[in-house]
Amino acid sequence: MHHISTKIKELAQKAILDCYQVKENSLIIKPTSKEFDADFTIVIFPLVKRLKKSPQEIGDTLGKYMLDRLEWIVDFKTIKGFLNISLSDRIWFDVLDDIADTPHFGQQKNKGEKLLVEYSSPNTNKPLHLGHIRNILLGWSISNILETAGYEVVRTQIINDRGIAICKSMIAWSLYGENKTPKSQNIKGDLFVGNYYVLFDKKFNEEYAAWQKTNTAQIIFNNNSKKLTEELFFKKYKNEYFNNYSQLGKLTRKMLQDWENNDPDVLNLWKKMRSWVLEGFDETLDALNVSIDKDYFESETYLTGKSIVEEGLQKNIFYKKDDGSVWIDLEQNNLGQKIILRSDGTSVYITQDLGTADLRYKDYKMDGMIYVVGNEQDYHFQALFATLKALNRPYADKLFHLSYGMVDLPSGKMKSREGTVVDADDLIKEVIEEATQSTKERGVLDDLSPKEIQDINAKIGLAALKFFILKVQSKKRMVFDPKESVDMQGQTGPYIQNAFVRIRSIQRKANKMNLNGADSKYSILNVYEKNLIKLLLDYPHTIQIASNTLEPSEIANYAYNLAKAYHRFYHEVKILSDPDRSAVLFRLKLSHQVSDVLKNAFYLLGIQMPQKM
RNA sequence: GGCCCCGUAGCUCAACUGGAUAGAGCAGCUGACUUCUAAUCAGCAGGUUUCAGGUUCGAGUCCUGACGGGGUCACCA
To answer: Which of A4, A126, A187, A191 has the CA that lies 20 to 30 A from A575?
Structure first.
């Protein structure tokens, strides 16, 4: 019964075959648009040329044929090149019954495939920000969607916990930290460490500014300035200063070497500070109500890629230049030459990713992987996938880059140097605060315990934030207006929650009225009811699309449309006070199914439903 | 400059993948709570889908070329 449209399509194809002895495979069937009174529409135009008959004649012939064969087709009309088909109400009652009888409606059957999803993937030197939030929400949501679409899913991340940037915060803490800890300062661990990362930059800039006045610096400037102003020259020279003259730079590079040589003091410091950051990350993920099954750390995987480099060289998939660096030729994929290993034998970004991929295969034997990473890395992933393909990895045919656009502020790009980065924890706090204000004003939660109130406010605030981000197609760059993100009216998460809460409220009342049981006498659907059933029927299809296109926004927009249709229905139709008992029971049943699907769809987005609001 | 992505109402986004008169929300204006929760509903207004060509019965969607925005072209990640 979930396949009304495919049934109609098949019948239409049969009709074409029987009436015109022509086979038509790419028939288009779609829901009839609102301004016409029918249920499904078959587009006739493509047939006109082949059959050399008028659209009207073809439509009428096919319509009549179908009307005669299927009892639940009750009418048809050919308008211009469109054959509009009307179905009997009974089929929609059957559909609703069928949905109600389907346990876990929307859940597709097991595909027997395991997919690994990578998201979040932060650096352990500063707290998460708005960009990470988009990443995490997309990763979490697509994981849920894939599970519902029948895949087994493993949620992972790769944590960048090594390298020069990490050492900067370690140096700053050793020099200026006075043995303070997140606990002693009562600061969240990731923010605590991030502050030292910022402090390093500040101290380094001071050091650099002082150095610029020295004779050495002036000589360098005079010899190399090439007409640049002093300011501009030293801006460009910063990196070289760090590597060749800076005291702090020297300390930092020394620390990285010591780290790679397993110096116990450095390792201890590194472990301590890393654990602070990771604790902080955990808190943020908790606050967002998401989780990750398995962490991979670059500190653990950065060496493993090297065995793959050996393998690639042996199989002549990679080649070595005279200086010792290793490359792969991806010219036939239009991706040029890609470096796989540095001339000094140390690994680069892609080396790690090759290693991590194999490590994951060893751990999980997955059939494929999805990397949730910003679109500035499109090229990297093309190269990575092509390389894994060249290496003939068993999972190489099912690798996807869920490439999402940057998040801008109304004022423009987020820039850490200009302090315009929106901190994840601040943002979460803010949206919950906004929800709290709102529920307080409206007084709807007054009879609940403080804990329940807090819980509901968190659900509402997070719904606003998450929906605001997930409703946008992932590949599009989006503008994040903090003011709009806490909006709770119109096309928002709370609007959809509100539809759910209205249904719960009705159900509570219905229970008190002892309105239970089934009644099948209700037989005439109004447009609002029919519309809701049609939308419910769309749900599995929507999951399919979202899963195929890796697009949570499909679910977000679907949920909005369903909630909107319910709000309309709620306003236009008496549910409990209708004198016809069979109507009441039918509408309760319909409402219940709507609430189930809304709840499920929101689950797919990682958003929870409150019972009251 | 080469390659990749984006361009739809004042703003934020849709448009079932080529189908009928391009839809929602916000902001603005008007109306609906003694009635199942008004975080709601209805209405008004808002568009040469950046531009110019092309493909065809039919283009916001496909192709070409401009223009505008962003990304990327590291032995960074």
So the answer is: A4
